[in-house]
Amino acid sequence: MSTAKRKGLILVNTGNGKGKTTAALGMALRAWGQGMKVLILQFIKGGWKYGELKAARKLAPDFEIRQMGEGFIKGEDDSSLGEHRHAARQALETARKEIASDRYDLIILDEVLYAIYYGLIKLDDVLELLGQKPEKLHLVLTGRNAPPQIIERADLVTEMREVKHPFTQGIAAQKGIEY
Amino acid sequence: MSTAKRKGLILVNTGNGKGKTTAALGMALRAWGQGMKVLILQFIKGGWKYGELKAARKLAPDFEIRQMGEGFIKGEDDSSLGEHRHAARQALETARKEIASDRYDLIILDEVLYAIYYGLIKLDDVLELLGQKPEKLHLVLTGRNAPPQIIERADLVTEMREVKHPFTQGIAAQKGIEY
Description:
The structure is a homodimer of 179-residue chains.
Chain A: E1 10-14, H1 20-33, E2 38-42, H2 50-59, E3 63-66, H3 80-101, E4 106-110, H4 112-117, H5 123-131, E5 138-142, H6 148-153, E6 156-164
Parallel strand pairs in A: 1-5, 1-6, 2-3, 2-4, 4-5
């Protein structure tokens, strides 16, 4: 309808099932197909998949995946959690900068909800980020356990619920499907 | 684990939420990134999105989307349902042929479950199709209301559940996101 508002959406993919990141990736491909500029930021180190990274390289420059966690020094916080916290904070910082840059049409904050849930970054910082979103930018947040304050601010929330999973049947992760 | 079986999976994206086709599209991109050959067959006419079609064109030849419903003659079955039935049957026929061809690594039967639910094609024909799947082929079925017989045969089933939707808030479908 012509009277409907035109605006960038805040979308959330949550739940315990597969497909949260994968659906974000599909959205990224659709947007890229429409000539939009897409950025995917990964808030959890090692959360990236080879298939995605290879595809992104082929779809460059308007389709970017950035991994975080570089420059971590063991002495700072001698734990795996410390390393994850470092990566998540780098991702948050990059998100702030790139959302403000207004260079992208779609930014995906992959596993940001997971990073909040595990206390790697603060919910308030992410809510502040949502408040700074340029009008036309689409923002996608993925991860388990979306907090109610994020759901409240989102336009579209989908829960991916696992009904049946192959790993429980002794089938190995399959190249191109799982990674 | 090294003892785990290596095989092509049957994956199902169902539920009333967004993201069933979008997650399949993300899977297609990941597989394509791994150098696999991908075919997407659309069982419901008009179910395609412009962003997807444009992206597929850029990712050709190893990333194909085929729409059905061509060659429908009004006199055959003078209704919109007749046209949909015609498209779904064409898609089923093509699926049979291309699954048997063994030319693809991943085939997506988009909205095939919707086509079964509305009686456009028969459940038994789709079950037969699953039985004919070459060992290494990954097959993805999407659509609402996955029948129990399909869930039984699937390796991975995810339900996409709508928690919140923007159209109920008077926000128009957004280019690159919804289509």
